[in-house]
Structures are given as C-alpha cells and as structure tokens.
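Hi team,

Below is the intake form for CCR4-NOT transcription complex subunit 11 from Meloidogyne hapla. Please confirm the fields before the structure is written into the shared record.

FORM ID: S-0412
PROTEIN: CCR4-NOT transcription complex subunit 11
ORGANISM: Meloidogyne hapla
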Amino acid sequence: MRMFSESTGLLTRIRNFFICKKNDVDEELALRRLILALFLNDCSFSTNDNSFNIIQQTGFRLSAILHLFGLDNEHKFRLVLLLAAPISTRINQENDGVNIQPIEFVNYQRIVADPIFDRQSAKIYLGELPQLVEQLLFTKTLDIKELRWNDLELFNFLELLTTYPEPWVLRNFASLLVLAPGLAKIAITIRALHGDPAEAGNTLFSCIEASILLGLNTDVTLKDTLFALTTKCSPSSCLTVLREAISTTNQLTIETFGGHLGETENGPINLDEVDLVNLKNALEANRQIAKLFLTHLHQII
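The structure came back. Fields below:
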C-alpha cells in the first residue's frame, strides 16, 4: 500500500481526478485499469472460491486502498464505483465523421436510471459492483483493526454509494443487495435498528422482488435477515418490518389487478390489462413473506 500512496503518486492522481470538474473519460478508464492491474486483478471476487484466504486477501487490499482516503467517504465510494461500475461505449460527437471511433466510458447513469429486469440486465447495469462491495464483508476478521468494516460502516457506505450521482432506482439498489450475500441483511437490520423499521420492511420486499426477478433462491437471505432482526431488534420493530413488507406486496398485487388497496369499488377486472408476469411475481413475493412470517413467528413474539 505504501507503493500506492507514495511511490507512484497514484493517490494524488485519484484525488485530483475526483475534485476536477472536467469529465475526463480517458483518465477515468486509465485509473480504473491501473488500479485493478496493480492491486485487484490477481484476486478472486467470487465467494464460491474454495480458498477463504484468497477472498479475504481481496477484502484486505480493497479496504487498505480505501483507508488511504481517511475520513473522505465521498472519495471512497466514488473509487469503488470507478473500479466496478459498468463500462459502455458511445460515438465521439466531436469527431469529423471520417475516423469515427467508439469511446468507452464508465456508465454511472445506467445504474441510476435503467431498472433491472433479469439476471442478464443486472450484470450489464451493475457491472462488478456486487462482487467488489461484498469483499468488505470479509474484513471483520482481519488482523489490522483499522481495515475492518463493521455493519454500521457498511450500511453508511451503501447509502452513499447508491445515491451517486443521484438516488438509484429502488430495484437496482435491491439487486445490489441480493447479489452480494450479506448486504441485504445489513441494509434491513441496521435500518430497523436505527429507527426506521417501516422503511426496512419496504427494503425487505424490494429484496424479495429483486430475487424473484433474478431467479435467486431467497431462503438463506430471508432466514439470515430474520435471525439478525430477532437478535438485534425489539419484537415490535420486527413485526413492523414484516407488516410493511406484507402491506407493500398486497399493494402491488392489487395494483397489478388494476385497483388500489383500500378502495371499496375498483370495478370489474379487464384481463387484457393485467400484467400476468407482474402478478405472478407479486403473488410469489406474498407467498415468501407469508411463509417467513408463519415459520418464524415464534422467534419474534
């Protein structure tokens, strides 16, 4: 890490890029490729890797790089985005039309604005972000205390990351959480623990919805999340989380039928106007939350 901050002058170069008002896409890509090549490309981003030491090594290196920025949290999350956000191409509008070349750039706007709808779109829109952010989960057992990330620090980091350059589409935020096992539990539990269990319930629903769209098995995520809720939060907070998740799924189901929750006269249903895919997803979300509630109610009360 000394080479990173002193020998190469790379830290200063990154800081200068972040504070510069000019959108220098060439410098941005150059920094991305250089940092990955020097520090991260020889590590595994996969939690399926048989060697936990390799995974922990990635977390150590990433945390060490971020630690060099001290208390400057904006530069930390922007660096993670720079390293792992999706790359897109566009045609140079200033070209003379003779030697037109596509230009690669880090596409932050795609994460923000384009809703994910399946596993492939998640890969395109989120790039390597889920895998990279997930590495910070494995820093809790590092020997160097300063490089460890606790749940609250990760929660605050996620809040900053997913509001740049503006707040992300909710489904994309939820997709990031469920594609990096452990982040969903942190996002829901910390929010419930720090005074907003209703919003935690909405996040729980969004994670279930995202898991269904991405074809992921939610059993482990749901059980881990509920276990964390029951061990860290009051029974009242746990029930509020589940109530809001149920309320949101019910609202989605009714709206899919063309009505609105609470209305006494929604009129006859026109089957041609019903989105059967959305209806199926809404009913599946209802089923999963109901199952979660029924099988774990004894842990809450």
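SUMMARY LINE: The chain has a mean pLDDT of 85.

Thanks, M.
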